Amino acid sequence: MKVMIFVCGEGLGHTSRCISIGRELASAGHDVHVGAYGYSKELIERKGLKTHKVPSEITLVGKAGSLNLKKSILATFKRGQFLGIIKIRKLLKRTKPDVVISDSYFMGMLSAKSRGIPCYLIVNQSNMEEFFKGKGVSSKIVAELVKKSYTGMFRMADKVIIPDFPLPHTVCRKNLEFRKKTWEKVFFSGPLIGKTFGETKTRELQRPHVLCTVGGFGYREPIFRKVIEAAGLDSSINYTLLSGPSVDPASLGELPENVTILKFIDDQFPYMKASDLVIAPGGHSTMMEALSFGVPMISVPDQKHSEQQNNAFVIEEDGLGKMMDYSASPEDILENVRLLISDEKYRNKLAEMREMAVELNGPKAVRLLVEEIGN
């Protein structure tokens, strides 16, 4: 079969799970093409998959760490990016795929359906209107338009794939709202991550070890520095912190001996496998990676980001980690670090999640679903 995968490039979580699907399909002998843009396209090319440049779908607008979805939608319309559907139709006409998989890239799905090509839509959120709550009359109008658009997309899709554990273990469950007819075609694939626990070689790190992917740039800098302070309160626990490429580690001053600062890790899975805890924002893909590796989390969701906050709430509610906010003190952070590393209750729960991820085998589940069309 020939399969076209469209990737939303606004966040590398979409990219990593599409790479896992693409590799699985290619290893089974299918002809895989990927439509992507920006750094996402570069990353996919490095993984050896056939790529095609596609227009970006949405312009993200915001400041101080808060996404302004209303302004993002208006900016997208002003730039005329939705006209890119013509380019996508031409790409599909040229490549002639048997099926399209669209990871939150709605132009890809609209183009596929307009050409009569079966299309599977991947999403981990279906209530984007949450961004507009309590923000005035004009925002309510935009929210209603957004909701109607999403509802129409879900109705058109042949399958709606949720890249998460099945209910009741679904981490993104508080971000899912479907009509009855849509629920009938929802498929929980299991986590879609770049590497499995079994195929990952453990990085040699001093244990116990904490991997912090919060980043030290912009609005996240205060919590980043508090994690460093927390590390200085207990030298028996070791930390690797990812600062991001925009931060000079030298600007952080003298660091505790148990702290290592790295700007970027090309492959974080060996570090994750060697860690006893992950500190991260509330991004869905990072959560799927940590749970698939059996590692508990401290989630510090971005401010005013309802999706991340819902994910973080579920992590704590299900006994998979702790939810904290930017007001947390270094002492609070250390208390939760010690709890999650030492409490057997958390270790047992996370071991169950890791075993479930292995059994589900998300990429294979998606491949089998796609092959049903061919059969």
UniProtKB/TrEMBL annotation:
Coiled-coil positions: none
One Pfam assignment: Glyco_tran_28_C
Molecular-function GO terms, alphabetical:
hexosyltransferase activity
Q: Which InterPro entries match?
A: Glyco_trans_28_C
Q: Keywords for this entry? A: Transferase
UniProt keyword annotation of Zinc present: no
Name the source's superkingdom: Archaea
**Gene3D superfamilies, sorted:** Glycogen Phosphorylase B
What residues does the Glycosyl transferase family 28 C-terminal domain cover?
253-353
Quote the SUPFAM superfamilies the UniProt record gives. UDP-Glycosyltransferase/glycogen phosphorylase
Family (UniProt): Belongs to the glycosyltransferase 28 family.
Q: What is the official name of this protein in its record?
A: Glycosyl transferase, UDP-glucuronosyltransferase
